[in-house]
């Protein structure tokens, strides 16, 4: 679809309000301007008027991003995430909608489960694998090259201007300890914006297209992790060519490469694969084991209902707003069922250690896996929170979370249930390691 048409359609008052309600409102964040979601909504019409006016006349400027650092483990530099103001987040989110409309699937990141499923189906056709990792991917993207690539499809000056401003805006480490002179980001794409992944995928589109079309390899890229399945006769040529192409983009590969026969196990997106089995890497198994034990250790014995609820959420995961959450949902492509029996055994040993036999009714990883693969849309074993009635939500809030709902209306119940389950999502997602 043409960018100019989408520009006129998306950057309107009606669409910006709809987009805010559907995409931004439930994922609030506070940027350096310290404007809360409540305050932003009080001035929603004014904020939208500013977005439209400044976008259309080419004067829209992003406020400096709040930078948060997240550890990626020992001996690794932290991940720097940029948090925009709510106004900038809405602007960038609609801009991302425009880019997806122009580029389609080429700028989307495929779900890890779909990637692993495809690998497991094709791995037996090849003898070798090549695994490459782009060093400091987002931070190494050449901004001028990115804009030149975008200009092949998007010519409208106002769109280019707003993209340029988004990637040039600097980030300040939070909390801010001293005043700084305003500068510009001269390299890379800020990570954490609604457009970050899309811009990175656009930057890599030539490589993705070139190697995705080759019929003698299977090519996969998830953000900065590249995997190629290839036979021995093409192994060295493919490896040399893709390394050269990545270098031409101004990107650098990490020195540590993983390559060899597909009969040898290798890691990709948190999974461990070879030509006969798909399982989970040891560190991820250890993480879920520790998470399960932490629940037994930290939740008081008298609150058995809460412990049972939390354990079962970790085991089965759940569905909310049509999205699937949970450790086993993420690792749903494994074929190593012995791992699931092992985790069920871990839970039973914890129940015995904490003297809770006969007092707690816990679900099983093995049964959950079977339900996911055979009856996900019919099962009641895995909670589908979208299907709960108001009375069910009230029961969960009052019985499990000990909330007093006397004299509370339906709106209050819905808001509180949604808020608490969003908190559970954050807790459950901690069990899934950083995969890239």
UniProtKB/TrEMBL annotation:
It comes from the Bacteria. Residues 1-273 form the Reverse transcriptase domain. This is Reverse transcriptase domain-containing protein.
